[in-house]
Design goal:
The protein is built from three helices and three strands, in the order βββααα. It is of the alpha+beta class. The chain has one domain.
Length: about 80
Amino acid sequence: MFVRIKRNVSKGVAYEYLQIVRSYREGGKVRQQIIGSLGRRDRLVASGDLDGLLKSLAGFSEKLRVVEAVRESGLAARTAQ
């Protein structure tokens, strides 16, 4: 799955919408299905809802939890000689 930006123009004004999309194969061809629409990008960013959603989703990723733990603890990578 991935997030796609869908651009629409209405009355001369361009809007961007965020969609969650999944890819799959059907009969040897790649197809895409829109799982859901998150809303207008500018509104999601301005309200902080996009950051909140990303933090919530990151909680389900073990790799991102490790990265966040390292970042919060102040550990830094150094080269070995």
